[in-house]
Amino acid sequence: MEPPTTRPPGGTGRKPRIRRTGSSGGTSRPTGQDASTARQRPAQPGMERPAVVSRAPSGKGAAGGRAAQRSGDGERSISRFWRWIEGDPDKDGRTGYYLILGSTLALTVIGLMMVLSSSSVEAISKNPDASSYDQVIKQGTWAVVGVVMMLVISRFSLPTFKKLAWPAFFIGAFLLLLVLTPLGVEIYGNRNWIQIGSFTAQPSEAAKLALAVWSASVLSKKAKLIGETGHALIPVLFPGGLLLIGLVMLGRDLGTAIVIGLVLVAALFLGGVRLKLFAVAGVIGAIGAILMVLVSGNRMTRIYAWLGLNCDTDPAACYQSTQGLYALASGGWWGVGLGQSRQKWNYIPEASNDFIFTILGEELGLLGTIVVLLLFAILAVAMYRVAARHQDNFVRIATGGIMAWLIGQAFLNIGMVTGLLPVIGVPLPFISSGGSALMLALMGVGVVLCFARHRPDASSEPGRTPATHTPRKGTR
After folding, report:
1. Predicted pLDDT of residue 458
2. In a 10 Å sphere around its CB, with 0-12 CB exposed, 13-18 middle and 19+ buried, how is residue 323 labelled?
Protein backbone atom coordinates (compact mmCIF):
# COMPACT_ATOMS: atom_id res chain seq x y z
CA MET A 1 0.00 0.00 0.00
CA GLU A 2 1.52 3.28 -1.09
CA PRO A 3 1.57 6.25 1.31
CA PRO A 4 -0.96 9.07 0.61
CA THR A 5 0.27 11.85 -1.62
CA THR A 6 0.26 15.36 -0.24
CA ARG A 7 -1.40 17.73 -2.74
CA PRO A 8 -1.23 21.52 -2.75
CA PRO A 9 -4.49 23.36 -2.01
CA GLY A 10 -6.66 23.54 -5.08
CA GLY A 11 -4.35 21.36 -7.14
CA THR A 12 -4.40 17.80 -8.36
CA GLY A 13 -1.04 16.74 -6.97
CA ARG A 14 0.27 15.97 -10.46
CA LYS A 15 3.39 17.44 -11.94
CA PRO A 16 2.42 20.00 -14.64
CA ARG A 17 3.23 18.90 -18.15
CA ILE A 18 5.55 21.11 -20.16
CA ARG A 19 3.87 22.22 -23.40
CA ARG A 20 5.08 24.10 -26.41
CA THR A 21 4.05 27.76 -26.23
CA GLY A 22 3.00 30.16 -29.00
CA SER A 23 4.19 33.67 -29.80
CA SER A 24 1.99 35.24 -27.15
CA GLY A 25 3.48 33.12 -24.45
CA GLY A 26 0.25 31.22 -23.69
CA THR A 27 -0.53 27.65 -24.57
CA SER A 28 -2.30 27.10 -27.88
CA ARG A 29 -4.23 23.83 -27.83
CA PRO A 30 -7.48 23.80 -29.84
CA THR A 31 -10.32 21.76 -28.32
CA GLY A 32 -13.73 20.51 -29.43
CA GLN A 33 -14.97 21.78 -32.84
CA ASP A 34 -12.01 24.13 -33.13
CA ALA A 35 -9.66 21.16 -32.85
CA SER A 36 -11.35 19.27 -35.68
CA THR A 37 -11.42 22.42 -37.80
CA ALA A 38 -7.74 22.99 -37.13
CA ARG A 39 -6.93 19.44 -38.19
CA GLN A 40 -8.90 19.80 -41.44
CA ARG A 41 -7.82 23.40 -42.25
CA PRO A 42 -5.25 23.52 -45.07
CA ALA A 43 -2.16 25.52 -44.66
CA GLN A 44 -2.52 29.13 -45.79
CA PRO A 45 -0.01 30.77 -48.11
CA GLY A 46 2.64 32.68 -46.27
CA MET A 47 2.07 30.81 -43.03
CA GLU A 48 4.39 27.85 -43.65
CA ARG A 49 6.78 26.96 -40.88
CA PRO A 50 10.33 27.86 -41.87
CA ALA A 51 12.53 24.90 -42.58
CA VAL A 52 15.15 24.08 -39.99
CA VAL A 53 18.56 24.09 -41.54
CA SER A 54 21.29 22.16 -39.69
CA ARG A 55 24.87 22.93 -40.39
CA ALA A 56 27.22 19.95 -40.17
CA PRO A 57 30.38 20.64 -38.24
CA SER A 58 33.56 20.66 -40.21
CA GLY A 59 37.28 20.68 -39.65
CA LYS A 60 38.57 20.51 -36.10
CA GLY A 61 35.07 20.90 -34.70
CA ALA A 62 33.86 17.73 -36.43
CA ALA A 63 36.89 15.74 -35.29
CA GLY A 64 36.48 17.00 -31.76
CA GLY A 65 32.79 16.13 -31.78
CA ARG A 66 33.45 12.60 -32.97
CA ALA A 67 36.18 12.12 -30.37
CA ALA A 68 33.89 13.37 -27.63
CA GLN A 69 31.13 11.02 -28.83
CA ARG A 70 33.49 8.05 -28.82
CA SER A 71 34.70 8.99 -25.35
CA GLY A 72 31.12 9.27 -24.13
CA ASP A 73 30.22 5.90 -25.65
CA GLY A 74 33.24 4.31 -23.95
CA GLU A 75 32.31 5.79 -20.59
CA ARG A 76 28.72 4.60 -20.96
CA SER A 77 29.91 1.09 -21.88
CA ILE A 78 32.18 0.97 -18.83
CA SER A 79 29.35 2.28 -16.66
CA ARG A 80 26.92 -0.37 -17.97
CA PHE A 81 29.53 -3.10 -17.47
CA TRP A 82 30.22 -1.98 -13.89
CA ARG A 83 26.49 -1.85 -13.11
CA TRP A 84 26.23 -5.41 -14.41
CA ILE A 85 29.13 -6.45 -12.18
CA GLU A 86 27.50 -4.91 -9.12
CA GLY A 87 24.04 -6.25 -10.01
CA ASP A 88 20.69 -5.11 -8.64
CA PRO A 89 20.86 -5.09 -4.83
CA ASP A 90 17.11 -5.77 -4.62
CA LYS A 91 16.92 -8.62 -7.14
CA ASP A 92 20.27 -10.37 -7.34
CA GLY A 93 20.48 -11.92 -3.86
CA ARG A 94 19.50 -15.40 -4.96
CA THR A 95 21.41 -15.04 -8.22
CA GLY A 96 24.65 -14.45 -6.34
CA TYR A 97 23.95 -17.42 -4.07
CA TYR A 98 23.46 -19.84 -6.94
CA LEU A 99 26.37 -18.43 -8.97
CA ILE A 100 28.72 -19.02 -6.04
CA LEU A 101 27.32 -22.47 -5.33
CA GLY A 102 27.31 -23.56 -8.99
CA SER A 103 30.80 -22.35 -9.85
CA THR A 104 32.25 -23.86 -6.66
CA LEU A 105 30.70 -27.27 -7.29
CA ALA A 106 31.77 -27.18 -10.95
CA LEU A 107 35.38 -26.42 -10.00
CA THR A 108 35.32 -29.19 -7.39
CA VAL A 109 34.06 -31.75 -9.90
CA ILE A 110 36.69 -30.68 -12.44
CA GLY A 111 39.31 -30.98 -9.71
CA LEU A 112 38.29 -34.54 -8.82
CA MET A 113 38.38 -35.49 -12.48
CA MET A 114 41.86 -34.02 -12.98
CA VAL A 115 43.21 -35.54 -9.74
CA LEU A 116 42.12 -38.95 -10.99
CA SER A 117 43.83 -38.39 -14.34
CA SER A 118 47.05 -36.83 -13.07
CA SER A 119 47.67 -39.07 -10.03
CA SER A 120 46.85 -42.51 -11.41
CA VAL A 121 50.18 -43.13 -13.14
CA GLU A 122 52.29 -41.56 -10.39
CA ALA A 123 50.55 -43.64 -7.69
CA ILE A 124 51.33 -46.91 -9.47
CA SER A 125 54.92 -45.91 -10.25
CA LYS A 126 55.62 -45.17 -6.58
CA ASN A 127 53.92 -48.32 -5.31
CA PRO A 128 53.12 -51.12 -7.78
CA ASP A 129 50.77 -52.69 -5.27
CA ALA A 130 48.74 -49.50 -4.88
CA SER A 131 45.54 -48.71 -6.73
CA SER A 132 45.40 -45.89 -9.27
CA TYR A 133 42.23 -44.71 -7.50
CA ASP A 134 43.76 -44.25 -4.05
CA GLN A 135 44.40 -40.53 -4.26
CA VAL A 136 41.12 -39.61 -5.92
CA ILE A 137 39.19 -41.63 -3.30
CA LYS A 138 40.88 -39.64 -0.54
CA GLN A 139 40.24 -36.38 -2.40
CA GLY A 140 36.61 -37.36 -2.98
CA THR A 141 36.13 -38.11 0.71
CA TRP A 142 37.47 -34.69 1.66
CA ALA A 143 35.25 -33.12 -1.00
CA VAL A 144 32.11 -34.74 0.43
CA VAL A 145 33.02 -33.59 3.96
CA GLY A 146 33.81 -30.11 2.63
CA VAL A 147 30.50 -29.77 0.77
CA VAL A 148 28.57 -30.86 3.87
CA MET A 149 30.48 -28.33 5.98
CA MET A 150 29.86 -25.65 3.35
CA LEU A 151 26.10 -26.21 3.44
CA VAL A 152 26.04 -26.34 7.25
CA ILE A 153 28.01 -23.08 7.57
CA SER A 154 25.75 -21.40 5.01
CA ARG A 155 22.84 -21.84 7.46
CA PHE A 156 24.57 -19.96 10.28
CA SER A 157 23.29 -16.59 11.45
CA LEU A 158 25.48 -13.53 10.92
CA PRO A 159 26.19 -12.86 14.64
CA THR A 160 27.51 -16.42 14.96
CA PHE A 161 30.59 -15.60 12.91
CA LYS A 162 31.51 -12.69 15.17
CA LYS A 163 31.25 -14.97 18.18
CA LEU A 164 33.55 -17.50 16.49
CA ALA A 165 36.08 -14.94 15.21
CA TRP A 166 38.48 -14.85 18.16
CA PRO A 167 38.36 -18.61 18.88
CA ALA A 168 39.02 -19.29 15.18
CA PHE A 169 42.05 -16.97 15.20
CA PHE A 170 43.59 -18.66 18.23
CA ILE A 171 42.93 -22.13 16.78
CA GLY A 172 44.61 -21.10 13.51
CA ALA A 173 47.67 -19.76 15.34
CA PHE A 174 47.85 -22.89 17.51
CA LEU A 175 47.76 -25.17 14.46
CA LEU A 176 50.59 -23.19 12.89
CA LEU A 177 52.62 -23.67 16.06
CA LEU A 178 52.15 -27.45 15.75
CA VAL A 179 54.09 -27.31 12.47
CA LEU A 180 57.19 -26.35 14.47
CA THR A 181 56.81 -29.36 16.78
CA PRO A 182 57.77 -32.97 15.99
CA LEU A 183 54.33 -33.31 14.41
CA GLY A 184 55.49 -31.04 11.58
CA VAL A 185 56.53 -32.55 8.25
CA GLU A 186 58.98 -30.99 5.80
CA ILE A 187 58.26 -31.42 2.07
CA TYR A 188 60.51 -29.95 -0.64
CA GLY A 189 62.19 -27.63 1.84
CA ASN A 190 58.93 -26.23 3.29
CA ARG A 191 57.70 -27.21 6.72
CA ASN A 192 53.99 -26.51 6.42
CA TRP A 193 52.32 -29.85 7.17
CA ILE A 194 51.42 -31.79 10.30
CA GLN A 195 51.08 -35.56 10.40
CA ILE A 196 49.32 -37.67 13.02
CA GLY A 197 49.52 -41.31 12.03
CA SER A 198 48.27 -41.56 8.46
CA PHE A 199 46.39 -38.26 8.75
CA THR A 200 48.08 -35.19 7.24
CA ALA A 201 46.81 -31.62 7.05
CA GLN A 202 48.02 -28.14 6.16
CA PRO A 203 47.27 -25.74 9.08
CA SER A 204 47.93 -22.63 7.01
CA GLU A 205 44.64 -23.19 5.14
CA ALA A 206 42.72 -22.85 8.41
CA ALA A 207 44.74 -19.72 9.23
CA LYS A 208 43.61 -18.05 5.97
CA LEU A 209 39.92 -18.51 6.76
CA ALA A 210 40.38 -17.56 10.40
CA LEU A 211 42.21 -14.35 9.46
CA ALA A 212 39.47 -13.28 7.03
CA VAL A 213 36.68 -13.68 9.61
CA TRP A 214 38.67 -12.37 12.59
CA SER A 215 39.95 -9.23 10.84
CA ALA A 216 36.43 -8.46 9.61
CA SER A 217 35.08 -8.73 13.14
CA VAL A 218 37.74 -6.45 14.62
CA LEU A 219 37.66 -3.81 11.87
CA SER A 220 33.87 -3.62 11.78
CA LYS A 221 33.78 -2.91 15.53
CA LYS A 222 36.45 -0.20 15.16
CA ALA A 223 34.85 1.46 12.11
CA LYS A 224 34.51 4.88 13.80
CA LEU A 225 38.16 4.81 14.95
CA ILE A 226 39.73 3.48 11.78
CA GLY A 227 41.03 6.94 10.82
CA GLU A 228 43.52 6.79 13.69
CA THR A 229 46.73 4.96 12.82
CA GLY A 230 46.90 3.03 16.07
CA HIS A 231 43.37 1.67 15.81
CA ALA A 232 43.81 0.92 12.09
CA LEU A 233 46.89 -1.26 12.56
CA ILE A 234 46.38 -2.76 16.03
CA PRO A 235 45.58 -5.61 16.46
CA VAL A 236 44.81 -6.64 12.85
CA LEU A 237 48.24 -5.93 11.36
CA PHE A 238 50.22 -6.14 14.57
CA PRO A 239 50.32 -8.50 16.27
CA GLY A 240 47.58 -10.56 14.55
CA GLY A 241 48.48 -10.63 10.87
CA LEU A 242 52.23 -10.46 11.34
CA LEU A 243 52.03 -13.29 13.88
CA LEU A 244 50.42 -15.64 11.35
CA ILE A 245 52.80 -14.60 8.58
CA GLY A 246 55.79 -15.04 10.89
CA LEU A 247 54.72 -18.54 11.90
CA VAL A 248 54.33 -19.51 8.24
CA MET A 249 57.74 -18.06 7.37
CA LEU A 250 59.33 -20.09 10.16
CA GLY A 251 58.33 -23.06 8.02
CA ARG A 252 59.97 -21.36 4.99
CA ASP A 253 56.71 -21.25 3.01
CA LEU A 254 56.89 -17.93 1.17
CA GLY A 255 53.99 -18.73 -1.18
CA THR A 256 51.51 -19.26 1.65
CA ALA A 257 52.80 -16.14 3.40
CA ILE A 258 52.04 -14.12 0.26
CA VAL A 259 48.46 -15.45 0.18
CA ILE A 260 47.92 -14.59 3.85
CA GLY A 261 49.32 -11.14 3.06
CA LEU A 262 46.68 -10.75 0.30
CA VAL A 263 43.92 -11.57 2.79
CA LEU A 264 45.34 -9.05 5.25
CA VAL A 265 45.66 -6.28 2.64
CA ALA A 266 42.11 -6.84 1.37
CA ALA A 267 40.69 -6.69 4.90
CA LEU A 268 42.54 -3.47 5.78
CA PHE A 269 41.61 -1.82 2.48
CA LEU A 270 37.91 -2.65 2.80
CA GLY A 271 38.04 -1.65 6.46
CA GLY A 272 38.86 1.93 5.43
CA VAL A 273 42.53 2.20 6.36
CA ARG A 274 44.21 5.25 4.81
CA LEU A 275 46.03 4.61 1.54
CA LYS A 276 49.29 6.23 2.66
CA LEU A 277 49.64 3.50 5.27
CA PHE A 278 49.46 0.95 2.45
CA ALA A 279 52.28 2.75 0.66
CA VAL A 280 54.51 2.55 3.73
CA ALA A 281 53.56 -1.07 4.40
CA GLY A 282 54.12 -1.93 0.72
CA VAL A 283 57.67 -0.58 0.78
CA ILE A 284 58.46 -2.45 4.00
CA GLY A 285 56.89 -5.64 2.64
CA ALA A 286 58.83 -5.41 -0.62
CA ILE A 287 62.11 -4.95 1.23
CA GLY A 288 61.29 -7.92 3.47
CA ALA A 289 60.42 -10.15 0.49
CA ILE A 290 63.68 -9.24 -1.26
CA LEU A 291 65.68 -10.07 1.87
CA MET A 292 63.89 -13.42 2.22
CA VAL A 293 64.82 -14.28 -1.35
CA LEU A 294 68.45 -13.19 -0.95
CA VAL A 295 69.05 -15.25 2.18
CA SER A 296 67.59 -18.45 0.66
CA GLY A 297 69.56 -20.33 -1.98
CA ASN A 298 66.45 -22.27 -3.02
CA ARG A 299 64.44 -19.10 -3.67
CA MET A 300 67.32 -17.49 -5.57
CA THR A 301 67.53 -20.59 -7.79
CA ARG A 302 63.81 -20.28 -8.56
CA ILE A 303 64.18 -16.61 -9.44
CA TYR A 304 67.10 -17.39 -11.77
CA ALA A 305 65.08 -20.21 -13.35
CA TRP A 306 62.12 -17.88 -13.89
CA LEU A 307 64.39 -15.36 -15.63
CA GLY A 308 66.09 -18.15 -17.60
CA LEU A 309 69.55 -17.31 -16.24
CA ASN A 310 70.58 -20.77 -15.03
CA CYS A 311 68.76 -23.17 -17.38
CA ASP A 312 71.99 -24.02 -19.22
CA THR A 313 74.18 -24.45 -16.16
CA ASP A 314 71.50 -26.02 -13.92
CA PRO A 315 68.84 -27.74 -16.08
CA ALA A 316 67.16 -29.28 -13.03
CA ALA A 317 66.19 -25.82 -11.77
CA CYS A 318 64.12 -25.15 -14.91
CA TYR A 319 62.90 -28.71 -15.42
CA GLN A 320 59.47 -28.45 -13.74
CA SER A 321 58.44 -25.15 -15.30
CA THR A 322 59.74 -26.19 -18.74
CA GLN A 323 57.83 -29.47 -18.69
CA GLY A 324 54.71 -27.60 -17.61
CA LEU A 325 54.97 -25.32 -20.64
CA TYR A 326 55.48 -28.38 -22.85
CA ALA A 327 52.23 -29.83 -21.48
CA LEU A 328 50.28 -26.63 -22.16
CA ALA A 329 51.71 -26.40 -25.67
CA SER A 330 50.89 -30.04 -26.42
CA GLY A 331 47.23 -29.47 -25.57
CA GLY A 332 46.63 -27.00 -28.37
CA TRP A 333 43.08 -25.77 -28.85
CA TRP A 334 41.09 -28.89 -27.94
CA GLY A 335 43.54 -31.03 -25.93
CA VAL A 336 44.82 -34.55 -26.42
CA GLY A 337 41.82 -36.06 -24.62
CA LEU A 338 40.85 -36.70 -21.03
CA GLY A 339 43.27 -39.17 -19.44
CA GLN A 340 45.63 -39.06 -22.44
CA SER A 341 48.31 -36.75 -21.01
CA ARG A 342 51.90 -37.72 -21.76
CA GLN A 343 53.56 -35.33 -19.31
CA LYS A 344 51.86 -36.94 -16.31
CA TRP A 345 54.04 -40.04 -16.81
CA ASN A 346 56.47 -38.70 -14.19
CA TYR A 347 57.73 -35.91 -16.45
CA ILE A 348 56.18 -33.15 -14.31
CA PRO A 349 56.87 -33.22 -10.56
CA GLU A 350 53.76 -32.55 -8.46
CA ALA A 351 51.53 -33.07 -11.50
CA SER A 352 48.47 -33.61 -9.31
CA ASN A 353 49.20 -30.71 -6.98
CA ASP A 354 50.83 -27.38 -7.85
CA PHE A 355 51.11 -28.11 -11.60
CA ILE A 356 47.73 -29.74 -12.15
CA PHE A 357 46.67 -26.82 -14.36
CA THR A 358 49.26 -27.88 -16.94
CA ILE A 359 47.78 -31.41 -17.10
CA LEU A 360 44.34 -29.85 -17.47
CA GLY A 361 45.60 -27.71 -20.34
CA GLU A 362 47.23 -30.67 -22.04
CA GLU A 363 44.19 -32.95 -21.83
CA LEU A 364 41.39 -30.40 -22.30
CA GLY A 365 43.28 -27.83 -24.34
CA LEU A 366 42.85 -24.07 -24.38
CA LEU A 367 39.09 -24.54 -24.23
CA GLY A 368 39.35 -26.37 -20.91
CA THR A 369 41.62 -23.74 -19.37
CA ILE A 370 39.25 -20.97 -20.48
CA VAL A 371 36.33 -22.79 -18.83
CA VAL A 372 38.26 -22.93 -15.55
CA LEU A 373 39.17 -19.25 -15.81
CA LEU A 374 35.53 -18.34 -16.49
CA LEU A 375 34.39 -20.33 -13.46
CA PHE A 376 36.85 -18.44 -11.24
CA ALA A 377 35.67 -15.17 -12.83
CA ILE A 378 32.02 -16.04 -12.11
CA LEU A 379 32.95 -16.87 -8.52
CA ALA A 380 34.76 -13.53 -8.16
CA VAL A 381 31.88 -11.50 -9.65
CA ALA A 382 29.29 -13.27 -7.48
CA MET A 383 31.35 -12.70 -4.31
CA TYR A 384 31.81 -9.05 -5.24
CA ARG A 385 28.04 -8.69 -5.65
CA VAL A 386 27.50 -10.14 -2.18
CA ALA A 387 29.95 -7.64 -0.69
CA ALA A 388 28.60 -4.69 -2.70
CA ARG A 389 24.93 -5.20 -1.85
CA HIS A 390 25.41 -5.51 1.93
CA GLN A 391 25.48 -2.56 4.29
CA ASP A 392 27.24 -4.40 7.13
CA ASN A 393 31.00 -3.74 7.20
CA PHE A 394 31.63 -7.17 8.69
CA VAL A 395 30.05 -8.89 5.69
CA ARG A 396 31.94 -6.72 3.22
CA ILE A 397 35.35 -7.20 4.83
CA ALA A 398 34.96 -10.95 5.39
CA THR A 399 33.73 -11.52 1.83
CA GLY A 400 36.59 -9.44 0.43
CA GLY A 401 39.15 -11.36 2.47
CA ILE A 402 37.84 -14.75 1.35
CA MET A 403 37.70 -13.58 -2.26
CA ALA A 404 41.29 -12.33 -2.06
CA TRP A 405 42.33 -15.72 -0.66
CA LEU A 406 40.66 -17.93 -3.28
CA ILE A 407 40.92 -15.75 -6.39
CA GLY A 408 44.35 -14.37 -5.48
CA GLN A 409 45.74 -17.85 -4.89
CA ALA A 410 44.27 -19.05 -8.19
CA PHE A 411 45.97 -16.13 -9.96
CA LEU A 412 49.30 -16.95 -8.33
CA ASN A 413 49.09 -20.64 -9.27
CA ILE A 414 48.08 -20.04 -12.89
CA GLY A 415 50.70 -17.32 -13.27
CA MET A 416 53.29 -19.68 -11.82
CA VAL A 417 52.62 -22.62 -14.17
CA THR A 418 52.38 -20.38 -17.26
CA GLY A 419 55.72 -18.71 -16.56
CA LEU A 420 54.34 -15.28 -15.66
CA LEU A 421 55.53 -15.69 -12.07
CA PRO A 422 58.33 -17.70 -10.44
CA VAL A 423 57.50 -21.08 -8.93
CA ILE A 424 56.37 -20.36 -5.36
CA GLY A 425 54.47 -23.57 -4.57
CA VAL A 426 50.83 -22.63 -4.05
CA PRO A 427 48.04 -25.05 -5.09
CA LEU A 428 45.08 -24.22 -7.33
CA PRO A 429 41.95 -23.90 -5.13
CA PHE A 430 39.29 -26.61 -5.58
CA ILE A 431 41.34 -28.40 -8.26
CA SER A 432 44.77 -29.32 -6.89
CA SER A 433 45.17 -32.46 -4.83
CA GLY A 434 45.06 -31.82 -1.10
CA GLY A 435 42.16 -32.76 1.14
CA SER A 436 42.54 -30.19 3.92
CA ALA A 437 43.00 -27.36 1.41
CA LEU A 438 39.84 -28.40 -0.46
CA MET A 439 37.76 -28.71 2.71
CA LEU A 440 38.84 -25.32 4.07
CA ALA A 441 38.21 -23.64 0.70
CA LEU A 442 34.69 -25.07 0.63
CA MET A 443 34.14 -23.88 4.21
CA GLY A 444 35.23 -20.38 3.15
CA VAL A 445 32.67 -20.47 0.35
CA GLY A 446 30.08 -21.55 2.92
CA VAL A 447 30.71 -18.33 4.86
CA VAL A 448 30.03 -16.24 1.73
CA LEU A 449 26.93 -18.32 0.93
CA CYS A 450 25.61 -17.44 4.38
CA PHE A 451 26.09 -13.76 3.60
CA ALA A 452 24.35 -14.20 0.23
CA ARG A 453 21.29 -15.70 1.93
CA HIS A 454 20.65 -12.63 4.06
CA ARG A 455 19.17 -9.36 2.93
CA PRO A 456 21.42 -6.32 2.41
CA ASP A 457 19.97 -4.55 5.47
CA ALA A 458 20.65 -7.51 7.77
CA SER A 459 22.91 -6.85 10.74
CA SER A 460 25.63 -9.08 12.17
CA GLU A 461 25.23 -7.55 15.60
CA PRO A 462 24.07 -10.02 18.29
CA GLY A 463 20.48 -9.61 19.37
CA ARG A 464 19.17 -8.73 15.91
CA THR A 465 17.73 -11.49 13.78
CA PRO A 466 18.67 -10.92 10.14
CA ALA A 467 16.08 -11.48 7.45
CA THR A 468 16.69 -14.10 4.80
CA HIS A 469 15.49 -14.60 1.28
CA THR A 470 12.88 -17.24 2.21
CA PRO A 471 9.74 -16.34 0.22
CA ARG A 472 6.42 -16.05 2.04
CA LYS A 473 3.26 -17.78 0.90
CA GLY A 474 1.01 -15.67 -1.25
CA THR A 475 3.79 -13.32 -2.37
CA ARG A 476 5.46 -13.11 -5.70
Report:
1. 59
2. middle
pTM of the model as a whole: 0.80
Establish how many alpha carbons lie within 13 A of residue 444's alpha carbon, considering only the half-sphere containing its beta carbon.
32
Rounded Cα distance between 311 and 327, Å, is: 18
* Count of beta carbons in the 10 Å neighbourhood of residue 253: 25
Cα separation of 231 and 229, whole Å?
A: 6
> 156: which DSSP letter?
S
Q: Which H or E run contains 432?
A: none
DSSP for 168-204?
HHHHHHHHHHHHTSTTEEEETTEEEEEEETTEEE-HH
Q: What is the pLDDT of residue 437?
A: 95
Angle of helix 393-417 relative to helix 158-179, nearest 10 degrees?
A: 40
Residue 124 three-state SS: helix
Q: pLDDT digit string (tens) for 136-190?
A: 999 999 999 999 999 999 999 999 999 999 999 999 999 999 999 999 988 877 8
CB 414, CB 328: distance < 8 Å: no
Query: Which whole number is the average pLDDT over 449-468?
Result: 67
CA 201/CA 212 separation, integer angstroms: 20
R_g of the chain computed on alpha carbons: 30
Q: Are 348 and 323 in contact (CB under 8 A)?
A: yes
